[in-house]
């Protein structure tokens, strides 16, 4: 069904012009060869004893280079310039050249369906209908770029963890949604819904087997998508030809979700030195997603001022965006335009304060997991949202790497040395996050197997036959205990685990 036309909302084009390419060279080369070396010499040599990068985080100097580059590019670049490094075609090809994909290229495939597109990561020769768990993954990138290429190593490692080590038939479907500012809200949510229809209505995968997952901006989209399933927004719709709207998925995974698009939290400033992103510059991406006009200053325009090699251009106009805080949530389908949209939980999930809505939207009984880094700028916002889910009775499984930064579970596996911190606890292992997630997804598989046995037992009792589903055992593995994933003190950098924490 590749000819389906979705009712998307075009925004403003973001072409990569020769002018932008020249400006990119002007801002990028001095940063790489001048500003970052000065930064490294200061923090890792001259001021080592007082540097929080060394004394608090303990990240190796070479691992700090990509962190500084990405944060600088996101602060300085336009959407088109950011896509020079995060190109949807080139970044995936580069990811697939890494050692983790050796002998596993046949696990990868690409499809165009339901007016959107996506990528499968699955063992060859297996059928998606027979999968016990399907991870429906929506990538981050501030809505304006595709960082899913960096998540490919995570996806293939997770697929091997589940299929080979844990004996769970598992696959990952990664959505290639259209980016802002070329397409604005609600386009990305419409494509997320279309992808879900593809899994359930086209491939006939049971909702109980699906774990919907998103990181950063993708986490925002997944949270908003779940709120939509619980209380449909009429502007988020797909053609009737795609079939009825599926019900709630079996489980949910939110990785460093960007649930509060405009924030003034303590961590948003205190953790900027450590993280891949910074708060002020993210406002440009928010305006692109909303389809709102940029202010008439140089904040979002290419700058040729050498001063900006070291200091980003003037910060985004938070003053004009913050009044929405505490405002009454807008009516579904009538949210307004521009920054008025920030009142809507379908755009800003943190705006949802209705307990029943949250309880209906997010899978309960330990079927929702929230992962974040204790040193990322969104830390306070994610903690607040996780506590809001707990207060609503969802009781999410909460996993925090106290010295981790934004999207640590993805980058720990793909960026050399980033996983290394001063931690002496279990999270000092590169694979620690993967193991926590594997336990959670295995729990989803156990629920599916239990339901399958119950259904077959019911059927066999009606016909008077013996029931045996023939499901292979998971040797050496256990069902996830949502109350305790690990133990220790925060000083040892371990997981935050108690779903009943207030």
Termini separation (Å)? 46 Å
Structural class: alpha/beta
Low-pLDDT runs? 466-502
Q: What Rg do the Cα atoms give? A: 22 Å
Helix content: 25-40%
Shape, principal axes of CA atoms: globular
**What fraction of the residues are assigned to beta strands by DSSP?**
5-15%
Describe the biggest sheet?
A: 8 strands, mixed
Order of helices and strands: EHHHHHEEEHEEHEHEHHHHEHEHH
Query: How many DSSP-defined strands?
Result: 10
- Mean of the pLDDT scores? 86
Strands of the biggest beta sheet: in what spatial order?
2-3-5-4-7-8-9-10
Question: What's the number of helices?
Answer: 15
Q: What multimeric state do the chains show?
A: single chain
Can you give a write-up of this model?
The chain has 502 residues and is α/β, with parallel strands linked by helices. It is 37% helix and 10% strand. It has 15 helices and ten strands. It has helices at residues 18-46, 52-57, 61-76, 79-85, 90-95, 152-165, 187-202, 217-230, 266-270, 279-290, 318-321, 355-361, 379-391, 408-414, 432-463; strands at residues 9-10, 108-113, 116-121, 133-138, 170-175, 183-184, 210-215, 251-255, 368-373, 397-401. The chain has an eight-stranded mixed β-sheet with strand order 2-3-5-4-7-8-9-10, with helices on both faces. The protein has a two-stranded antiparallel sheet with strand order 1-6. A hairpin with a 2-residue loop joins strand 2 (108-113) and strand 3. Helix 6 (152-165) packs across helix 14 (408-414), helix 6 (152-165) crosses helix 15 and helix 7 packs across helix 8 (217-230). The longest helix has 32 residues, at 432-463. The N and C termini lie far apart (46 Å). The model is unreliable at 466-502 (pLDDT under 50).
